[in-house]
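Open question from group meeting: does this chain pack into something compact, or does most of it stay loose? Before anyone orders reagents, we agreed to write out a predicted structure and look at it together. Recording both the input and the output here so the notebook holds the full record.
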Amino acid sequence: GTGADNDLYINQAVVFIEDAIQYRSINHRVDSKSLWLYRWYYSRTCQWILGLTITVILALAFVEKPSSLTITSDVRYRLPAWNPPCGLTESIELLCFLVFAIDVSVKSYLIGWEEFWKNKWLMAYILTLIVSLTDWIVSLSFFCAEDLRIRRILRPFFLLQNSSMMKKTLKSINSTLPEMASVVLLLAVHLSLFTMFAMLLFARTKDGQQDKEWVAYFRNLPDALTSLLVLLTTANNPDVMIPAYSKNRAYSIFFILFTVLGNLFLMNLLTAIIYNQFRGYLLKSVQSSLFRRRLGIRAAFEVLSFLKETPANAQQSYVSAGALLQVLQKAEMDSRCKQAIIRSLKICSCDQLSAAQFQKLFEELDKDAIKQHPPTPEYQSHFMQKMQFVFGHPYFGYLGNIVALANIVSICVVLVMDADKQPSERDDFFLGAINCFFILYYVLEMLLKIIAMGLKRYLSYPSNRFDGLLTVILLVLEIATFAVYGFPHPGWRPEFMGLLSLWDMVRLVNMFIVFRFLRIIPNMKFMALVVTTLLDLVKNLRAFAGILVVVFYAFAITGIMLFKGAVVPLGNTRKKCDFMALFGHFQAEIIYCLLYLLSVNLICRWAKIYFVAWWLISSVIWVNLFIALLLENFIHKWDRRCHREPVSDIEYQRTVELMFRDVLEEPTEEELMEKLHQHPHLQLCR
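Structure tokens returned:
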């Protein structure tokens, strides 16, 4: 009936609007049952369950044999770790596989078979599940005693395929690889040529005393290549040149030329190429996200135009304002955006909306103003108004910064004076007294600011929340110190009472005071720009961090399989790799080895391929990608700072999409309609 059709159109529009908000593809089934399943699948509960499942299956590596459940990773002091019985982690793993099977089944059904065969990620998802389940069955058949578990290396794929932004980032990286490969090849040529020169220059001579450079670094081709590769990272500089330099100063020219050409030219050239290419590909990816948003909004308009409320004699499609209000009430979206769209709709006072008007209403989704600070309280008392003016003035904040600086300087003076004193010789009276004075000032400053600004406005500023929290912590610590040790007095010396000694309490207070000095950052414009750039990167780096987790995880699992059992008890005369003792379990693999070797320290000849691959992916490629995003974010913020005056009562946040908003091109009407007519499940009559 007509009523059922109208309900279907409303529900289709709701889903299309939600797709637009989340930059999702609209190429999915649009019948009533499928729409219900689609909204259920993308509900917070289902996505939370899926995210928890991914977290659990990745975390199993910390529990599985070899277990990370030990206090220390040092083989000399480590007690035997608890290893779960066979079948425990496998049962949890099976439950995770069942969730993933449901996930891939629902996704495959919703997009339809025609789209399924075009989706390589879904096909890879199914293949990964099949291989993992096969490996799981093999593991149980061997009673969990097998050493090689392929499914552990495949686990990061579940994290990767669940994030559209991670997939876009990975696609951008893949597109950048040809340009990166040319510079990496040039680096390899540079390394090979200088290796040949080094082997000729530092060849073995008759005088064994003069062959220290040859013995230590250039004995054979693998050693020479490794020494110069590590020098390329500056990890062994200047150690590698000391023996040759001791023999003849002229040898330093070789190492200087190698370092200048490799580090200053080729590595920076690689950074420039990655920045240029990756920015271009990321921009294309973000442009496609904008197209998805506009397409979703236009699809919602088209299905709403089928409602019987549209005038029959209209020359073009229209949507009634009432229908749009119904959609907004049902759609899951940010309350600020929803209220802004409803407000704009009321201001427009149009009963019928054209496609352009409909699209313009949803431009609120693209705006980046997220928070307006509450107004200051209005006092009737003349005295309170004066207080509000004085203590709400920026100069009062500057005075607080000067006091905080004086506090830091006084702490530095005391620490320098007491640096060489024994704990029993210290007199903490002066340090305790000045801390007491400054903390009282901080508490008074916080209370006066709350009176001047009002509690809501005071808490609406992140800098005030940071300042206030540390002030409260300092006050609590100071009260606890007085309760245990009494008020500061001459001869106030440390003594152990309770959990912390007096000196520990004073050090803890001083650390918080030093940390509190960061409050000056918002008052220094350039420093504030740098800090906000870093904070925005933290918000927007989920995709980058996710791929980095994937790389860390895969290399850690591979390292465990390759180097398991390579630990030699201390005192053994056979020399093995010292760092092999660190590959006993997953946590040590990540924390000690991969993070430490990010700066490169190669020891074992037969393990060089593994670590060179890790260095290339982490230090050469990934660090440069991070620099590219950092530069892009900073340049964008700098341009906005130069061209627009900041509004004091409005805070802004930048997402990856909003970062490129000024240079994105709006899709044309023809492009949108052409794409809509290609929709596999939505039939448009016009």
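Observations to bring back to the group:
The chain has a mean pLDDT of 78.
The radius of gyration is 32 Å.
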